[in-house]
Amino acid sequence: MNITRETVVNSAVLALLVLVPVVAQLRGDPFTITLATKVAIFALAGVGLNLALGFGGLISFGHAAFFGIGGYVTGILASHAANYEPLFDGAFTVNGTQQMLLIWPIAIVVAGLFAVVIGALSLRTSGVFFIMLTLAFSQMIYYFAVSWPSYGGEDGLSFYTRNQFPELNMFDPLNYFWVCFTLLILAVGLSAMITRSRFGLALGGARQNPQRMASIGIRPFWLSLTIFVISAMMTALAGSLYADLNRFVSPAMLNWHMSGEIMVFVILGGNRRLLGPVAGAGLYILAEHLLGQFSDYWQFFLGLVLLAVVLFAPGGVIGILTRRRGDV
Amino acid sequence: MSEVILEIHNLHKAFGALQATQDVSLTLRQGEIHALIGPNGAGKSTLIKQIAGEIRPDSGSIVFAGQRVETWDAAARARAGLARSFQISSVMPDYTVLQNVVLAVQGAQGRSFGFFRPALSDRHLTDPAQAHIAHAGLEGREGVTAAALSHGERRKLEIAMALALQPRAFLLDEPMAGMGPEGARQLTPILSELRTSAPILLVEHDMDAVFALADRISVLVYGRIIATGSVAEIRANPEVRASYLGEEA
Ligand SMILES: Nc1ncnc2c1ncn2[C@@H]1O[C@H](COP(=O)(O)OP(=O)(O)OP(=O)(O)O)[C@@H](O)[C@H]1O
Ligand SMILES: [Mg+2]
User: Fold this and answer.
1) Under a CB-based contact definition with an 8 Å cutoff, are residues A266 and A54 in contact?
2) Chain A within 8 Å of B91 (Cβ-Cβ)?
3) Which of A79, A108, A144, B7 has the fewest CB atoms within 10 Å, i.e. the most exposed one?
4) Structural domains of chain B sorted by starting position, each given as residue range(s) with its CATH number in brackets
């Protein structure tokens, strides 16, 4: 593998993300570890969205739906397990669980099923209609969660104890960070693999010139639907981790604000850059934490920065740091 | 007479009151270049689009390799071996020459759902792609992004992508458009050789190229074919001279 500038920048970004919680651990500062964990989780959500938004060119303004579904699946399974209440009790019994290794795949599959339906319907349109449809579907799910009393409705659902992972104490903040960080790395690796594959090549073609695809025998719809679903699944995994970090889920995870935030991670860090969302989420949390102390209007300044990025540096932070031209 | 690969019968297409295709019938035979000429707005591109499956005819039939294909979408026709190039260059601008052609090879193979192996290190894709790139006269330009190519090179890239489909027929819509006389001279032998891989339905305004290349010519005027014949027959046809070739011909 030849070492490009992007590889160097990427390594630095990851090294920083690891260094912060390790140093915080040595200094006995669990709050900072939690902050770094939040970055890893948000970055994972962004890596998921980047697949659809960056590589697939699908401007989804509804990824909060998948983030929230991941969160709710986690909260529901965990609270049923904690209360010894079966999820379903009829001809057979389905119990909740507090095992992350069970919760994750369930969260991923449930979100994937939602994504198949939402994607198949939304992909009948394109451009601004696609954006609006993804937004509409996610808001429908948001309002459903608000008005669904069984799991806390508007107030959300607390589940008091962190879920479990074999052989690792998940109450140790640094351990939980490692779990989240490892999943982030796996997701980045998976993204890298997908984007270089035959599928990735075709997906990029469909993004650049969808009309042309048919004349070489490829139907863009199936490419787009597939990446939309994979993207949703990654974001749902992030949602599950986020619920576990807070031991709490609420409709806020499903709200369009959340969709916007995930989009900010991607665009700020660098659309279509493998580690763009990691840099974006890191800067976002940093800005929230530092600027938020001084000014309640920090989001206003974030807005300005975002505007500058979109206008002058479409490759985001990673783009600025690597300054490669036109390459994919 | 050699085998007919593409057969169009009584095709009609109207855009509102405008009859863009009127009762068009034509054939494309193995080994030939069949040129389709006619003034601007005659309906040449519209006919190509109907054959390629991008727009639906109002009536009539299209038989390709023995099968009725009117109801097939464009992707299905491309996979069945109908390759086309566009009057206005249409490639993937951010991709390199190699990526564009590899993508077309992969489309022809019908295998775009591989997730694991990197496409650009798959010899089953890159070997044929390299061959098509060389065939189209773009050797040495594999690593250049399509957006950075000259106009003429982009036209050649279109040919390479069409070749990648290993087609049973080419539909080339003004492959020389905007290339200038020098570019046209370069492309003429490439197209001439192309007919040995598959017959070509060639839409072209450059009459020197058409007369040099065509085995048969059809003349389309206001959506209607007014004459079909050999180069000599078309040059001699008084109606064609009046309506299209003009006085100087
Ligand atoms: N989608 C469309 N809707 C309405 N009219 C159309 C459409 N496409 C083409 N036309 C009209 O049909 C006629 C034939 O157009 P077409 O592009 O097929 O001509 P052409 O022979 O390819 O011309 P040129 O030599 O300029 O490329 C023109 O009058 C054009 O304006
Ligand atoms: Mg035309």
Assistant:
1) yes
2) yes
3) A144
4) 1-81+169-249 (3.40.50.300), 89-166 (no CATH)
